[in-house]
Amino acid sequence: xxxxxxLTAIIIYLQGHHRITVDELADRYDISTRTVYRDLRAxxxxxxxxGSEEGKGYFIVKGYHLPPVMFDKDEAAALxxxxxxxxxxxxxxxxxxxxxxxxxxxxxxxxxxxKYLDTLDQHIKTFTHSDERQVETDYLIFVFLQDAVxxxxxxxxxxxxxxxxxxxxxxxxxxxxxIRDNYWYLAAWCRLRTDYRMFRVDRxxxxxKTGEQLPELPEHTLxxxxxxxxxxxxxxxxxxxxxxxxxxxxxxxxxxxxxxxSEERVDGGVKMTFLTSSVEYFARWLxxxxxxxxxxxxxxxxxRVRELSKELxxxxxx
Length: 318
Known about the structure:
alpha+beta, CBASS_pafABC_assoc_protein, single chain, transcription, SH3 type barrels, YafY family transcriptional regulator, Arc Repressor Mutant, subunit A
């Protein structure tokens, strides 16, 4: 990106946010903080009313606006691709709002770009993976959760846990919405567990506001949640297993959901390295591959697979 394009992009970015720090701009445009300060000064000298507040960042003074921004065909095509990715949640308010925004963008395109986009629209399709289950999500839950996050509203959830096959009532402090392994999650502080938790959105049975508002500077934050998640990732256990050629064909994308990090081809198959937070769950997953898998590491995983195999044999032999 050349400097003129970057300066325009910075104005648009500032105009779309309440406050932006120098570090955020440096990360977004992959430039040094020194370059950010130089760009901001250049914009101020050019007459763009950029203000700053110590400790909070920079902002565009209220009342200033750029002329209407036009999208080029590449930007519009990227948004169209995003619309295809949104089809997994096509029955939600989130997807409806995205499609409405895309229609407005189409309306301001030049005729040449519209024709380009219409042609591309006919040649981008999505196919559901054969292993993917249909996820039914409440139509308005994204609107509710987004509003709760922004307003700092404590909310009450009835949440289903498939592992225990039970529903629990949780009062939570919402921190943010995340996508992980193709599912939406609510990151929150759970008052029942007195710890940070992630709640899969399609498992939230019912929801409501409690009427309690969090303070402007809440005790629990998304930053702290992220830091805790990183610490937990450092505690992951490394396991190494070998799948034979036939099993590798059926494994597909499942390896990515189990913490796959690397692999190498060996005689008779593929040796794969995983990082897992639960040797127990990983051992149970390996059982489905029968004699098509060999455990190389760790000793704990080998022992648990042996125990589970023995229990399974005794069960079916009784």
